[in-house]
């Protein structure tokens, strides 16, 4: 009886590796193209929106630059006229204020020309 028990255990132990070899691992889950398509479309949509926003920001920056340079030209002409009216002994406070405003505006134009970076 003991011999039969050992014989059954021996057969089970020997059969286990062959049983394990016959089992094939499950194949990896297949990727579904219908799931990835909306993600790609979403990325394209985000890229288009970002591109449109960048174009709009560039147009607004150019419009602001044109407006600031027009203002800069006007102030420069006014400053030139004010300096021409004054003599070597008198420098009006208006001339100093215009010069400071021109300086501030010129710095702003310079920064806008550098761009958003």
Number of helices: 3
Tell the overall outline: rod-shaped
Order of helices and strands: HHH
| Helix content range | over 70%
Spans where pLDDT lies below 50 across 5 or more residues: none
Using only C-alpha atoms, the radius of gyration works out to 41 Å
Oligomer category: single chain
Secondary-structure class: mainly alpha
Describe this entry's structure for a reader.
The chain is mainly α and 117 residues long. It has a domain at 51-117. The protein contains 3 helices and no strands. It has helices spanning 2-22, 33-85, 93-114.
Describe what is shown at a glance:
The chain is an all-alpha fold and 117 residues long. It has three helices and no strands.
Produce the secondary structure layout:
Elements: H1 2-22, H2 33-85, H3 93-114
Helix pairs in contact: 2-3
Comma- or semicolon-separated keywords:
mainly alpha, 117 residues, 0% strand, 82% helix, single chain
């Amino acid at each position: 009886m003991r011999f039969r028990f050992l014989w059954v255990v021996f057969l089970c132990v020997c059969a286990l590796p062959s049983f394990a070899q016959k089992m094939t691992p499950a194949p990896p889950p297949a990727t579904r193209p219908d799931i990835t398509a909306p993600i790609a479309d979403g990325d394209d949509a985000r890229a288009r929106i970002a591109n449109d926003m960048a174009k709009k920001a560039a147009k607004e920056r150019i419009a602001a630059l044109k407006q600031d340079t027009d203002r800069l030209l006007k102030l420069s002409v006014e400053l030139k006229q004010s300096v021409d009216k004054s003599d070597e002994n008198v420098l009006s406070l208006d001339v100093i204020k215009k010069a400071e405003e021109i300086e501030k505006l010129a710095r702003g134009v310079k920064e806008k020309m550098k761009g958003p970076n």
